[in-house]
Amino acid sequence: MENEEIKIELYTKEKIPDVLAFERQLRAEEDVWGWEIDDAYLKSVTDSFEDSRFKNAISLLAYMDGQVVGRIDVVRIPSHFDGSVKAYLDWICVLKSARHKGVAQALMNEMRSRLKSEGIDTLIALTASNDEAQSFYKAVPDSSMHDTGIWIDIK
Known about the structure:
Layout: E1 7-10, H1 16-29, H2 39-48, E2 57-64, E3 67-79, E4 84-94, H3 103-117, E5 123-125, H4 131-139
Parallel strand pairs: 4-5
Antiparallel strand pairs: 1-2, 2-3, 3-4
């Protein structure tokens, strides 16, 4: 994959097989993923493309040599708090074998461009705590670390 062109595409229902191949490769390269690629997962992902609750979700895929090597998922968050629409970075991930080749930066740049074209000026993220992720986020242009993230389970 050295010196190959990175192509960014919108994740659509038709690209689910490409994403499943990506997720299987993720697991082959690193055994740290917390969900199973099973029938229930496939049904949930497939159904999400027809579910109106996902209208604010946008996902992009990074392709190199015809295969997905990275993915970014964002949700638009309209708020009556201040009448703004911000975005939340839900996930950005690159295959270990494709890291340090500009894939994450390409995904982030394309997502930022798309959000800006929609009038969204803030992208909020919880950052992974591992050193590699922290290094990436600290290198994102025009970004700064604020506050502390919290996960609250709804039971």
